[in-house]
Amino acid sequence: MTATTSIHGMWSTRFAFILAATGSAVGLGNIWKFPYIAGENGGGAFVLVYILCVSAIGIPIMMAEILIGRRGRQSPINTMRTLAHEESRHGFWQMIGWGGMIAGFLIISYYSVIAGWAIAYAFRALGGAFTSLNGETAGDLFGALLGDPERLLAWHTIFMVMTTIVISRGVRSGLEQAVRVLMPALFVLLLLLVGYALTSGKFMAGLEFLFLPDFGALSAGGVVTAMGHAFFTLSLGMGAIMMYGSYLPADASIARSTLIIALMDTMVALLAGMAIFPIVFANGLEPGAGPGLVFLTLPIAFGNMPGGLLFGTLFFVLLVFAAWTSAISLIEPAVAWLVENQGLQRVRASVYVGIVAWLLGIVTIMSFSHWAFSFDFAGEEKKNGVFDLLDILTANFMLPLGGMAMALFAGWFMARASTRDELAIGEGSAYRLWRVLIRYVAPLAVALVFLNAIGLI
Ligand code: PHE
Questions:
Q1: Does 130 reside within a domain?
Q2: Residue 4 domain-assigned (yes or no)
Q3: What is the tens place of the pLDDT at every residue in 129-174?
Q4: How many angstroms is it from 203 CA to the middle of ligand 1?
Q5: Best label site of 105, 333, 372, 388, fewest CB within 10 Å?
Q6: For residues 70 and 4, is the Cβ–Cβ distance under 8 A?
C-alpha cells in the first residue's frame, strides 16, 4: 500500500480540494477561450458537443485522474510509476506523467501571456480607457496591445513572477481562501454582464447562436476542438488534477467533488458566452474574431454601463485571479517532481520551472506580431502562428491523448478492487456506470473523434 499522505502537504478538507480544483478548472479557458472557439466554430452545435464531452468523457476521466492521484500521492510521473508497479504493469505508464509535464510547460507558456492581456486590461479599465468604446475603437485598443511585444513581455513577466511566488510557498497556503472569495465574486460579475447583455445587446441573437445547434456549421476539426476544450477547461489529461488528487484526504468523496467542479466550470463558461455574444451581434463584431473576442466585447459593455469603471476593473482583476489559480496547477506537477526526484527545495524548483515557462512564453508573444503566420485548421484561418500551433497541439491532442491513457489505465490496467475501494461509491449502479464510461465510452469517443478528423471514418 502507498502512503496515506503526500510529502508536499494535504488539503485540510474535501471542501478545500473542491475549491482548489475549481480554481484550477475555472480560468481563461472558460472566459477567454470558450467564447472565441465557440464563435469560430459556429456556436450551438459546438457548444452541444462540448457539453456532451464534458459529461460523457470529462467527468469519468476526472474521477479516474483524482483516484489515481490519491492512490499514488506523488507527482504524476512517480504516481504512475508507483501504481503501475503496484498493479504489476509495465513502467511505460509513467509516460502519462512525462507527457503531462511537457504539456503543462507548453500550456503555461501561452497561458501566462494571455493572463498578461487581462492584467493590461485591468489597468486600462481603471484608467477609463473603455469609456464610450464601440466595435471599432475596441479593436484599435486591442491591436495596440498585441503589436507591442515589449509591453506583452512586461505583463507576461509579472504574471509568471506572481505564479512562481505562490507555487514556491506550496499550493495550500492562500489558495483555499483566495478561491473561496474570488469564485463567487467572478460569478456575480458575470451575472451582471449577462444582465447588461439582456438590456443592451441583441440578447436573443446571442442565445440562439450559443444554444441553437446548426450541425452544418461544425466541421470534423471543430469536433476535435470541442472535445479538446472539454479536457482543457476541466484541467484534465496532463496531471494537474492528478496532483491535486494526491493531496485529497482519504475519506473524501471523489464522485461528488467531481460533479460539483464540472458543474461550476460549465456554468461559468456558459455565462461568459451569454454575456459576450449579445454584445458581438449588437456591435457588428465577428463571432469568429479569434483570441481577442473577450477583449473586444466586454470593454464595450463596461464602457457604456453605469459604474463601468468599477465593474470593468473588478472583472479583469478577477479574471487575472482566475488565471492565476489555474496557472499554479499547470506547473505544480513539474515542481513536485523536481522536489521528489532531484532533491531540490521547493522554492528553487519553483524558480527553475518559472524561468523555463517564462522563456517559452516569448515565442507566444512574438507570434502576435513579428513572427505571425497563418495556416488553416478545421476550416478556420489561424493567424497567430506558433501560439495557435501550441494551443492546438496541447488542447486538441496532448490532453485528450493523456486523458485517454488515464482512462485505459484506470479501466483496464487497475484491478477492479483498486478503483472500487478508491472511489468508495459501493458496487452499485453508480460504480458500474463509471466503469462502462471509463473502459468503453471515454476511450472510444476520443479515438472516434480523431479518426473522424483525419478522414478515416
Ligand atoms: N482549466 C484551465 C482553464 O480553463 C486551464 C488548465 C488546463 C489548467 C490544464 C490546468 C491544466 O483556464
A1: yes
A2: no
A3: 999 999 999 999 999 999 999 999 999 999 999 999 999 988 777 6
A4: 28
A5: 372
A6: no
Which residue in this structure is represented by grid cell 501550441?
Answer: 390
On whether residue 268 sits in a domain, the answer given is yes
DSSP state of 239: S
Residue type, 302: F
- 274 lies in a domain? yes
Q: What's the CATH code of the domain at 274?
A: 1.10.4160
SS3 assignment, position 73: coil
Pocket test for ligand 1, best of 326, 331, 332, 401 (most atoms within 8 A of CB): 326
Query: In angstroms, what is the span from residue 398 Cα to ligand 1's centroid?
Result: 13
The region, left, alpha or beta by phi > 0 then psi within -120 to 50, assigned to residue 219 is beta
Closest by CA to 407, choosing from 244, 251, 246, 236, is 236
Separation of CA 426 and ligand 1 centre (Å): 31
CA distance 424 to 409: 18
Structural domain range at position 445: 14-453
- Nearest CA to 38 out of 303, 266, 263, 202 is that of 266
- The DSSP secondary structure of 133-182, one letter per residue, reads --HHHHHHHHHHHHT-HHHHHHHHHHHHHHHHHHHHT-SSTTHHHHHHHH
Q: Report the residue among 33, 36, 232, 244 best suited for mutation to probe ligand 1: largest number of ligand atoms under 8 A from its CB.
A: 232
- Whether 288 contacts 39, CB under 8 Å: yes
Give the model confidence (pLDDT) of 231-277 as tens digits: 999 999 999 999 999 999 998 999 999 999 999 999 999 999 999 99
Tell me which residue of 272, 270, 265, 268 sits closest to 298, measured CA to CA: 272
Total number of domains in the chain: 1
The Cβ of residue 72 has, within 10 Å, a number of other Cβ atoms equal to 26
Q: How far is CA 273 from the centre of its chain?
A: 16
Residue with C-alpha cell 478492487?
417
Q: Answer whether 238 contacts ligand 1 (Cβ < 6 A).
A: yes
